[in-house]
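Dear H.,

Thanks for agreeing to be a second pair of eyes. The structure we're designing against is below in token form, covering all 101 positions.
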């Protein structure tokens, strides 16, 4: 009996995802109507999270390499995170300006 239930569940797990249809082309997530009146699809917003994480890691490694104590290490992580976030957001804003957003 248990074998039949497991076989039925396995078959259902294989068939159901194949039956679900997805649209052929999904609409772009970010659109923006530029100054020229046309819609631009490459306009994106950056929260700066990636830059903050990379900057915090770099700041922490830099502070540790210089032999900083716990306070210096914390300052390196915080400062690197803030600088990385700023650079990430600024880079995305510049790319949006180049695309006419």
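And this is the sequence the design step returned. I haven't edited it by hand at all.
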């Amino acid at each position: 009996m248990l074998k039949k239930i497991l076989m039925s569940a396995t078959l259902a797990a294989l068939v159901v995802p194949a039956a679900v249809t997805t649209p052929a082309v999904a609409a772009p997530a970010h659109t923006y109507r530029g100054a020229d009146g046309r819609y631009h699809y490459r306009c994106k917003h950056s929260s700066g999270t990636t830059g903050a994480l990379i900057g915090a890691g770099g700041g922490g490694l830099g502070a540790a390499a210089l032999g900083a104590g716990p306070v210096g290490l914390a300052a390196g992580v915080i400062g690197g995170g803030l600088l990385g976030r700023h650079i990430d957001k600024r880079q995305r804003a510049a790319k949006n300006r180049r695309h006419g957003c």
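Two observations from my side: The first strand starts at residue 32 and ends at 33. Confidence is low (pLDDT under 50) at residues 18-27.

Warmly,
E.
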